[in-house]
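Hi there, hope your week has been kind to you so far. Please have a think about how the structure follows from the sequence. I've dropped the whole record in just underneath, so have a look:

_____
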Amino acid sequence: MPDGKYQCIQTGKITYTVIKKEMGQPDVAKVWHVVYTRSRAEKKVHAALSTNQIESFLPLQKQLRQWNDRKRWVEVPLLTGYCFVHIGRKEYLKVLQTPNVLSYVMFEKKPAVVPDRDIDYLKQMLRQSDFKVSVSFDSYHPGEKVEIIKSPLMGLRGELIKAHGKQRFFIRLHSINTIFFADIPAEFLTAIPTVII
């Protein structure tokens, strides 16, 4: 049963438990969360959140699709079934009430929080067109810490592993157990020195 810190709110047939704001308690700073969306509804969710003035980020990537008589470049979600939202406490329930949003992605029984830096890195990866960005849900052992020193991704930091004979650079989002990777030539990378205290 929720105690005084929590409040049950029912929307339709679903009841949500949300944290109540204490009197005089300021809103916490906005953070990035991740929501599950209905199948093939990622763009609809992104548009609806924007209409409701809720900041969101939907990673998209261009793909060449073949139809019977023609080919066409289309933007498709890189991470199907997910959308990132940048919100404070007072927008938490508003996001859940958005059509086609199913729930928040949870981590240790709390809505997963994605660091600002990881979102910035992912946006930077998607702004360039030199390297294809892919997604993996596999568990990789920690790789060598590296920084990209050439190309439009210069300054990006992540991990490096060798896979299928290629140098695979990746960014790991621990909170949603997801890896975004690109195959980057070795000459574009430099190792980050390990600091020993």
The radius of gyration is 20 Å.
